[in-house]
Amino acid sequence: MKANKLNSIIVLGLVATIGILIVQLLWTKEAFNLEEKKFSQKVHVALLEVVKKLYQGTNRDIPADNPVRKISNDYYVANVENDFSPDVLQHYLNEEFTKSAINTDYEYAMYNCQSDEMVYGKYISTNSNTPVDEQINFPKHKNLVYYFAIRFPNETSYLLNSLRFWLFLSIALIIILLVYVYSIYTIIQQKKYSELQRDFINNMTHEFKTPLSSILLASNYLSKQNCITEDEKLNNYTQIIINQSKKLNSHIEKILNIAKSDDSILSLEKKEISVIPILNEVIENMKLKHPTLAVTLNHGKEHTILADEFHFTNIVYNIIDNSVKYCNDTPEVTISINEEKNNLKLNFSDNGIGVSENNIAHLFDKFYRENNKKSNEINGFGLGLFYVKKICTQHHWKIFAANNPNKGLLISILIPKN
User: Which reaction is the catalytic activity of this chain (predicted)?
Assistant: First the structure.
C-alpha cells in the first residue's frame, strides 16, 4: 500500500472517529437538557399539587398567577398566601415527590413573618445513610408573605445517573478513539522500523556479495593451478571452497529475499526425497566445518518426504549450525526420526545453552537474538531460525522448540506422511 493512500485512510479514520465522538457528546448534552427540562416539569407539577393541598379546608382561592417559580437550576419557590404548618408541608412534599417519581434528596425552608427571614426546615434524604449537610441560608424574596422554598442539592448527579447509557456510550467512544490513536502510532512506528530494516537488508546484500565474488574468483583461479590439480588433497579442498562459496551465495540470496517481507512466498520445487542421505550429507559438511562436532543419527528404516530438497537441506544445516554456535562445551547433536500416526517427526536435540522460558516463544521471530553473553560473541542477524520457520510453514509442516530437561534445546519438525 502506497504511503499517500495509507496516510489518507489514517486521516479519514481519525476524522470519522472524532466526528462520531462529537455527535455522541452533542446527543448526550441534548439528552441531559431534555432530562433537566423533564425534571423541572415534574417538580413544578408536584409543588403545584402541594400548594393546592395547603389551600384545602380554607375559604381562600388559589392565586390566579402561577404560584410556583423556578429561581435557578435547583431552587424553586412556591407562593401560598396562606398560613401553613411545617409538618403538613413536609407530609405533602413527600407524598407528591413520591407520586411524581422524584427520587432525589431535597431540603426546604419557609418564610417567617415575625422574624422576616427564611427559616430552614429540614434535609430530606432518599438514603438514610446519607449524612445531612450543614444548613444553607435560603434567600428571601420580596412581595411574598406565606411561601416556602425547595432546593435539590444533588440534581445534577441525579440527572447524570438517569443518563448512564448515554455516558457509557460516550466513554466507550473515547476509549475507542484512544485505542485508534495508539494503533496508528504503533503502525507508524512499525512502518519506520520496516523501512530501516529494508535499508539494512539492501546494504547487507551488497556487503555479502562483494567478498563472496572475490572468494569465488580467487578459488576458480586457484583450482586451475598445476600445483593444485596435481595434489588430490589440495584440489579437494579447493573444490570444497568453491562449492561452499556458491552454496553460501545461494543461501544469501534466498534468506535475504525472504527477510524482505513476512508475506513473501518462495517458489518450492517439491519432489520425493530421501531423508537419511540428506541428513548424512549435511552432517559430513558440518563436521568439516566444525571438527569437534559430534552428531548422532537415530533412525529405523529409510523415509521419504515430499519437499524442496534445497530448502530442506538448508533447514537441517541451519538447525545444526545454530546448535554449534550456542554451545559452551563440545557440541553434541542428536537427530532422531520417529513415526507418529500419520506424521514423520524429526527431533534435533543439542547440549547448548538453551533459551530462557520467557523468550522461547520468540525463537523463530525475524531478527530475534536472545540477549546473553553468547549472542554478543557470535556474529549474526537472527535470520537462520526465521528462515527455518518460514520454509516449514510453506511446506505446511509444524515446528516446535523447547528446552531439554537437563541441558540444551530441542527443535521438532512434524512432517505429514505422503
Answer: ATP + protein L-histidine = ADP + protein N-phospho-L-histidine
pLDDT in tens, 311-335: 888 888 888 888 888 888 888 888 8
Q: Where are the domains of the chain?
A: 3-162, 165-259, 270-416
Q: What are phi and psi of 53, to 5 degrees?
A: -70, -30
- For 4-36, write each residue's pLDDT tens digit: 676 777 778 778 878 887 887 888 888 888 888
Closest CA to 56 of 98, 97, 85: 85
How many other C-beta atoms are found inside a 10 Å radius of the C-beta of residue 65?
Answer: 7
Residue corresponding to grid cell 405533602: 92
Residue 119 carries which side chain, given as an amino acid letter?
V
Query: Any alpha helices (H) in 224-296, and if so which ranges?
Result: 226-229, 232-259, 275-289
DSSP class of residue 138 equals P
Q: Which of 305, 328, 331 is closest to 413 using CA atoms? A: 305
Q: Which of 87, 81, 93, 82 is nearest to 50 (CA)?
A: 93
Average pLDDT over residues 82-99: 82
Distance between CA atoms of 32 and 361, rounded to whole angstroms?
51
Instruction: Report the residue count for the chain.
Output: 418
Helix (H, G, I), strand (E, B) or coil at 415: strand
Q: 374 near 385, Cβ under 8 Å?
A: no
C-alpha distances in Å from residue 124, one per residue of 69, 75, 282, 323: 21, 15, 90, 79
Q: What rounded mean pLDDT belongs to the chain?
A: 79
The three cell numbers locating residue 191: 512502518
Residue range 253-258: mean pLDDT, rounded: 60
Q: Which of 93, 55, 54, 48 is nearest to 70 (CA)?
A: 48
Collapsed DSSP state (helix, strand, coil) of residue 349: strand
Which CATH code of 3.10.580.10, 3.30.565.10, 3.20.20.30, 1.20.1260.10 fits the domain covering 270-416? 3.30.565.10
Rounded to 10°, the helix 232-259/164-223 angle is 160
Q: Whole-model pTM?
A: 0.45
- Residue 258 pLDDT class (50, 70, 90 cuts): low
